Amino acid sequence: MQLDFNNMLRERIGEQGIPVDAIQKLAYPIAKANKAMVEKRYVGKMAWRDLPYNQNEVVKDILKYVEEMKNEIDAFVVLGIGGSALGPISVQQALNHPFYNELPREKRGGYPKLYVLDNVDPERLVYFFQAVDPTRCLYNVISKSGSTSETMSQFMIVQQMLEEKLGKENAKKLIVCTTDAESGNLITIAKTEGYKNFIIPSAVGGRFSELTPVGLLPAAFCGIDIKGLLEGAAQMDAICKDGEIDIHKNPPYMFALLHYIAMTMGKNITVLMPYADSLKFISDWFAQLWAESLGKQYNNEGEVVSVGQTPVKALGATDQHSQVQLYAEGPYDKIIVFLGVDEYRETITIPKTYSDMPSLGFLGGVTHNELIKTMQAATEYALTKAGRLNMTITVPKVTPQTVGQLLYFFEVATAYAGELLNIDAFDQPGVEEGKNATYAMFGRPGYEDKRAELDAAPAKDKKYII
Ligand code: PA5
Questions:
Q1: What separation in Å is there between the alpha carbon of 148 and the centre of ligand 1?
Q2: Residue 303 — φ and ψ, nearest 5°?
Q3: Which of 210, 259, 301, 447 matches a 20 to 30 Å C-alpha distance to 105?
Q4: DSSP 8-state assignment for residue 349
C-alpha cells in the first residue's frame, strides 16, 4: 500500500495547499500524539490494535462453526447496525464476487448467501422474508452493547417467526449472537436461550470491531480468508510502528496529520473516492469511523471545541459525473482522497468497433483497466490544477491481506487524528443522546428524567410547517 501526498502541499497546488514546513512546526503535538498512541495501547485503551495477534482460538472456533452450519442454510443474515454492519458489508463487497448472491451455490464455493439487514424500515424485513425461505437462514445478531433498539427489535421479530415456524428447539440452531461477554441483554438472552455466541472483547468499540467476530464470522460464512485479513492488519501494524518518530515513515499518521492541518485551514470535508467497485463500501465504513470518532463537542480537558470533519463517500469513475464539478470549482473546503488499485482482478478489452470514428475510435483496444486508471489520473490532474487538496492511496491488488491493511490503516489514522485533535475518538455521546431519547419516548423504565426533559422541550411552531 502506498500513500502519495504530493498534492496536499502548497508547492504543488498553490496557496490552498499545506506549507511543507507546517509539518515540522507541529513537532510538539506530533510527539504528544505518538506518546499517547503508545501509552494507550500499553494500558489496553486501544485493544483493537492487538486483534491481529490474539484471535487464533476465535478463528478456529469460527471456522469450525462455519463447517458445521454452512450446508444447513441458504443464507447468512446479519442483524446489526453501524459498527456492527458496515464492516461486514464492506469486506464482503471488497473480497467476494460483486454479484455473489446471484451466483449458483457451487460458484460461491458452496457457501451460503449473505444479507445484512441494518435498518428498521418496516418494509425491509417484510420484503426480505418474501424473498428468501426465512427458515433456511442463519441469523447473526450483532450488538456490542446488546441493547441497540434497531438490532434487538429485529432479533425479536426473527425469533418469533422462527419459533412459530420451526418450534423453539429448531429455531435455536438458526440464531447466533455476537456481543460483549458480560454487559447488555444479548449475552443474557444468548445464555438463557442456549444460542451459540461469539464475543466482542469488551475494550473494543463498535466501529473498531471489524476484525473481531463482528466481521470475521460473516466473512468466514462467505468463504473469505479471515486469516488473510488478520495477516494484512498485522502487516500494517508493523509498518506504522508505535512511537515511530519520523512521521514520513508512518503512512496512517501522515494521513491523519495532513487531515488535521487541513482542518485547521478550514477544510471540513474529506471525500474518500475509490476507483474500484470492490472498495466502494470501504468508504461507507470509513465514513462512520471518521465521523463518529472525530466529531466531538468537547476536548479531553472538557473545553468546547466542536471539531470533526464530514466524510463524503464517492466512487470513481461514477461520481466524476455527479460530484467532481463541485470538487473542482466549489468551495475550497475539502480534501479528496483517491483510493486506487494497481492490478484489478479481471481485464476486459473494448472492441475496435468504430475505429473510423475518431471520437470513439481511440477507445478501441483499450482495456477498462486502463480506462478507469487513466480517469483517476486525469481527475487527480484536474483537481491539482484547480488547486484542490488531494492525495492518493494505492493498493497493489484487492486481497484479504490488502483489505486487512486498509482497515487497520484507517483505524490507526482515525485514532491518531483523535490524539492530534485532543479528543476522545472512542466514545459517541452524540449518538447516545438519540438512543436515550428513543428509549424515553417509548417509556423505557429508567428513562423518566429524559422523558421529562423531552416533555419540557418547546413545541414546534405550526406557522413554520407548511
Ligand atoms: O461505533 C459504535 O460504537 C456505534 O456505531 C455502534 O457500532 C452502533 O451504535 C451499534 O451498536 P451496538 O453494536 O452496540 O448495537
A1: 8
A2: -85, 150
A3: 210
A4: B
Alpha-carbon distance of 365 to 355, in angstroms, equals 10
pLDDT tens string 249-271: 899 999 999 999 999 999 999 99
Say which DSSP state 103 is in. Answer: S
- Going by C-beta distance under 8 Å and a sequence separation of 6 or more, which residues neighbour residue 37? 46, 242, 243, 415, 416, 419
* Cα–Cα separations (whole angstroms), residue 442 to 160, 196, 407, 453: 21, 30, 37, 14
Q: How far apart are CA 81 and CA 63, in angstroms?
A: 24
Distance CA 316, CA 340 (A): 9
Q: Taking the complete model, does pTM exceed 0.90, yes or no?
A: yes
Query: Residue 145 CA: which ligand 1 atom is closest?
Result: 14
Q: Which atom of ligand 1 is nearest to the CA of 184?
A: 14
**Lookup: cell for 58:** 476465535
Helix boundaries (H) for 330-395: 358-361, 368-385
Specify whether the CB–CB gap between 426 and 41 falls below 8 A. no
Distance in Å, CA 329 to ligand 1 centroid: 37
Task: Report helix, strand or coil for 309.
Answer: coil
Enter the C-alpha cell of residue 125. 424485513
Q: What CA–CA distance (Å, rounded) separates 75 from 88?
A: 14
Task: Give, in order, the Cα–Cα distances in Å from 375 to each of 250, 338, 464.
Answer: 28, 11, 46
Among all chains, which residue has been given the C-alpha cell 418450534?
A: 167
Using a 6 Å cutoff on CB, does residue 34 contact ligand 1? no
- 110's grid cell: 458452496
Q: Decide: 144 in ligand 1 pocket, CB within 6 A.
A: yes
Query: In 3-state terms, what secondary structure has residue 27?
Result: helix
Q: In this structure, what C-alpha cell is assigned to residue 149?
A: 433498539
Q: Please choose, from the candidates 201, 207, 179, the residue with its C-alpha nearest in 3D space to the C-alpha of residue 415.
A: 207
User: Residue type at 459?
Assistant: A
Residue 343 burial (10 A CB sphere; 0-12, 13-18, 19+):
exposed
SS (H, E, C) 224-268: CCHHHHHHHHHHHHHHCCCCCCCHHHCHHHHHHHHHHHHHHCCCC
Q: Which are the catalytic amino acids?
A: 292, 321, 435
Q: Bridge partners of 393?
A: 3, 339
**Four-point Cα dihedral 174, 180, 182, 184, nearest 10:** -80
Indicate whether 243 pLDDT > 60: no
Q: Which residues pair with 340 in a beta bridge?
A: 394
- Note the pLDDT tens digit of each residue in 415-454: 999 999 999 999 999 988 888 999 999 999 999 999 999 9
Q: Which amino acid, 283?
A: S
Q: What size, in residues, is the chain? A: 466
Distance CA 309, CA 267 (A): 8
Which residue puts its alpha carbon closest to atom 2 of ligand 1?
206
Residue with cell 464530514: 310
